[in-house]
Amino acid sequence: MGIIFFSLVAYIIMNEIKGNSLKWAMGIGFVCLVLLIGVSRIIMKVHFPTDILAGFALGTAYSLILFKLYKFLGSRYFE
After folding, report:
1. pLDDT along the chain (79 residues), means of 10
2. Alpha-carbon 77 to chain mean position
């Protein structure tokens, strides 16, 4: 859930930012945040590393679908 939420927040914010360097900083910051969440789940022994990798893969796939849907519907409903 973390990767889906934070990737969507980053995507929406990055669409509004004009500066290229600020977009890179925002993207790197959100990627680090998501990776730290995954590592913390392993350290706390809540999940196995394979669980985290599967969650990252599914979350990334779901986020990419939502990005495409936002692009497709954005011009109709969000503006």
Report:
1. 85 83 88 92 94 93 88 70
2. 22
